[in-house]
Amino acid sequence: MIANLFAGLPSTVTVDEQLATILQRPGLRIERIVSTGQASPPDFWYDQDEGEWVVLLQGEAKLRFADEADARHLRAGDCIDIAAHRRHRVDWTAPGQVSIWLAVFYAA
Amino acid sequence: MIANLFAGLPSTVTVDEQLATILQRPGLRIERIVSTGQASPPDFWYDQDEGEWVVLLQGEAKLRFADEADARHLRAGDCIDIAAHRRHRVDWTAPGQVSIWLAVFYAA
Asked: pLDDT digits over A23-76, tens only?
């Protein structure tokens, strides 16, 4: 269980994203995702049964929707609500930086 | 609608807390609460029908539970899950600072 969102962060670049479930309740899941330069695999798209509200708390990222031409460049504090089954991917996260996402998944 | 959690903050001390609903879905509500030294009124206790997961993103606060002797001193990143009907109050937020809460209310 995470007691502080900014604790336990990697000090160096990690191979994979770090994912931690913070809260799980019926129809609700809160996760912290820590990226250090990772992106979604080529041609991979998330297609989720749940809605997802996500905020980038620290770092920088480019979030791409399949129904939009250009990726959205997210900076600290930017938040976005992703409807269930709206296909999206992470095109880029800032290399050499620790980017922290807080994601709230909810029953659609 | 808030697009960035750190935007639109007061530059000076405000009389009341600023409250903004960021997302509202069945059984789910996400709010940003901005405090500049406010506390709950004397002898006031929150007693909520919903569960509340809350994180203090910036600033400092003291959160008191009716079933605990001492207030919990929260600093940036500290998060806590408050069960429905667990009585609690905000004893203190840092004066002269902007404290930012992100609260996720969910059906209990």
From this structure: 999 999 999 999 999 999 999 999 999 999 999 999 999 999 999 999 999 999
Tell me: ipTM over 0.90: yes
Q: How far apart are CA B90 and CA B108, in angstroms?
A: 21
Query: Are A25 and B51 in contact (CB < 8 Å)?
Result: yes
Output the pTM of the full model. 0.95
- Give, in degrees to the nearest 5, the angle at Cα A99 between A97 and A100: 150
Chain A closest-CA separation from residue B77 CA (Å): 5
- Nearest-angstrom CA–CA distance, A22 and A10: 17
Chain A residue whose CA is closest to B52: A23
Cβ proximity of A71 and A17 under 8 Å:
no
Q: Which two tokens stand for residue B69?
A: 């002797």
Rounded Cα gap, residues B25 and A85, in angstroms: 16
Asked if A8 and A86 count as a contact pair (C-beta separation under 8 A), the reply is no
**Cross-chain Cβ contact A102/B55 below 8 Å:** yes
**Measured between CA atoms, how close is A94 to chain B, in angstroms?**
19
- Beta strand residue intervals within B7-106, DSSP E: 18-25, 28-35, 51-58, 60-65, 72-75, 79-82, 88-93, 99-106
Contact B5 A79 (CB under 8 A): yes
